């Protein structure tokens, strides 16, 4: 590095006097437009310090003349949202579930609220279209484990299923195989019996052997005719809808392990109005009951 | 095709000595300057059009008043429509998504009608240009009309051509200052009036004229008004002929529309040449009628010399015709040295033949036929618009739902548009699927559903279609939603997916 200023022969511009490996730096002035933008940013920064929260101090920070605060902004936006929702929520609160479903305006409101709430909270298990998957019930058809009326649905959403809530819908199918309540051969026979119940061809000898076992072990919940009991969440074994699969292996597996899913309690997490809207949304889009 | 001189480009064929003559034509003068500097852009040479009177100027004044009257009065015409619909005859209602034109009401879905109108306007322009040259440019174009108005204002404040040139050359004085300020303020006032009138086409005029002044008008109104004020002031006050020459595509397009039979402002060189100064009492023998007085040049708002031939810049406004006729009249010579004429007529007379005017030519026939065809299609499209419309959005999740008994249910969202001015109850049925039952969310099943659609609105409804169990049903069935109300009937095609490819 040299400190002597000299003029570059080619361009006629003064150099900065720096030299690296024979390369010298021209001392061209900064572009005017660049300088003005730079001055502009300085002016802006000073204005910003004065108007907005900027400098940290020992006790808090400078608040700025505008007293802007993101936290306060969020609070006021939430308040505005409450006001905005007010009238709709009030209408939902006053009306009964049936009234909501039968009134086109209220139903449209419930559908809107229901759809977004369903997407946020229910779709994880039941699917965005509500058709469920293995172990998670389909909410679009007309098969219901715990009842598909408006009131049933509202109650299920509020208390949940096997959720630990004191009023939760509660039932437990015994794990006949895992807990060694029945020997494997009998479970195979029972499987044939259940297949027969759903109207499919089955091994007649096995069905005959299983008949007394079904009468002793299963009738209490699933009924003698196999149509189940919604009060106990016991599924109908005669239809074509199977929560854990329709083939013999799946049925045998269910008799062996007695699976039962858990649905959370939504009462207390969602407002009563939201649960009402959600119930109407689920009921209106389902196959009915 | 006639050769058009384009003064925006270098002219290799420029005759020697044209430099001296170029001192008069602003376009040529500016070109000389640009060349000398070798710069990228041609500097604008100020043009001071001289006041002129005559037949074409009178027609232009009448058209100016008429077009401005149409522009300013149209939004204030009231029109009675049923219900709560706007009572303004011509209204582009963006908020309500409708366009009203007297008894015609268009929905956004029907903008194709506008396509027809645009094609029609283009064809009409083609036809008029092929027959009569650039009538649009010279008489009806807003740029021409507003520039004329602005030049009128300029003349009121600063006087005619010579006074204006003197004023511009003067150093700043009180006299110059108030004249310039007055001119620009008046210009801005006119510009504001222009932008202010524009916004009434988009809102209820009597309401907006109140809310606009108290700051309660729509933001779009203020922005549009400001934009149009700015463009009017800049285009008509400052840019003027540059808009036509550099910004507008039409001067370039018109070259393809004109032919030797098209009417345009022409200098009849056969009669005018050889030109030269003429003293009183001199003989007219052996010389042309043009006395080289440059009146055609000084009145030209485009700053060209029409005697150079047809030029790209020429808007065919006919002011040079008036100027020349005035001089010829004083000289006692027959008028029409510069006139609306065709290239072929000029050429024929130059050879001593009789000029022939051919209005009917293949080009004009094609344009006229296309014009008839497109106007026919547009009118037919307008008359045969359906009064109701149905669009179908099929549920994609779930694609289908199987019921406990094997019945299959598909979900659809129907958007039913009622274009009539009365509330209507539409009956929706699903055709082509025997035994299908329809329902709306939370409602019992039926063979059809009923939907009430208020006048002039679209209603979206969810409809479930349930088909009875049928193991032989194909996976995908074409189907139709038929929507009826009285004698109004419309339908839309869709598919019914039975889930046969997803057996349980």
Give short descriptive properties of this protein.
heterodimer, A: 289 residues, mainly alpha, Cytochrome Bc1 Complex, Chain D, domain 2, two-stranded antiparallel ribbon, 2 strands, 48% helix, B: 504 residues, alpha+beta, Immunoglobulin-like, five-stranded antiparallel sheet, four-stranded antiparallel sheet, 14 strands, 17% strand, elongated
Give the gist of this structure:
The complex is a heterodimer of chains A (289) and B (504). Chain A is mostly helical. Chain A is 48% helix and 3% strand.
Low-confidence stretches of chain A: none
Distance between the termini of chain B: 76 Å
* C-alpha termini separation of chain A: 90 Å
Strand pairing plus helix content of chain B: what structural class? alpha+beta
Strand content of chain B: 15-25%
CATH level 4 superfamily of the domain at 89-166 and 272-285 in chain A: Cytochrome c-like domain
Mean pLDDT of chain B: 87
Strand content of chain A: under 5%
Indicate the low-confidence ranges of chain B by residue numbers: 15-23
* Gross geometry of chain B: elongated
The number of helical elements of chain A comes to 10
Radius of gyration of chain A: 35 Å
DSSP helix fraction of chain A: 40-55%
CATH topology heading of the domain at 89-166 and 272-285 in chain A: Cytochrome Bc1 Complex, Chain D, domain 2
Structural class of chain A: mainly alpha
Can you put this structure into words, describing what you see?
- The complex is a heterodimer of chains A (289) and B (504).
- Chain A has helices at residues 32-51, 70-94, 97-102, 104-126, 150-159, 184-197, 204-217, 219-222, 248-257, 272-285; strands at residues 15-20, 23-26.
- With 289 residues, chain A is mainly α.
- Among the domains of chain A are: 89-166 and 272-285, Cytochrome Bc1 Complex, Chain D, domain 2 (Orthogonal Bundle), CATH 1.10.760; 184-257, Orthogonal Bundle (Cytochrome Bc1 Complex, Chain D, domain 2).
- In chain A, strands 1-2 form a two-stranded antiparallel sheet.
- The longest helix of chain A is centred in the N-terminal third of the chain and has 25 residues, at 70-94.
- Chain B is α+β, with helices and mostly antiparallel strands and 504 residues long.
- Chain B has 3 domains: 55-110 and 134-254, no CATH class; 260-360, no CATH class; 388-497, Immunoglobulins (Immunoglobulin-like).
- Chain B is 41% helix and 17% strand.
- Chain B has helices at residues 18-21, 26-37, 55-73, 112-132, 135-140, 142-158, 161-169, 174-198, 205-211, 219-239, 241-247, 250-257, 269-272, 295-298, 319-331, 343-350, 362-383; strands at 90-93, 98-101, 104-106, 264-267, 338-341, 388-394, 401-402, 408-418, 424-431, 437-439, 449-453, 457-467, 476-485, 488-497.
- In chain B, strands 6, 7, 8, 10 and 12 form a 5-stranded antiparallel β-sheet that branches.
- The radius of gyration of chain B is 33 Å and the shape is elongated.
- Mean pLDDT of chain B is 87; it is low at 15-23.
- The A-B interface holds A 101-102, 107, 111, 127-131, 138, 140-143, 236, 239-241, 246, 280, 283-285, 287 and B 395, 397-398, 401-406, 409, 411, 441-442, 504.
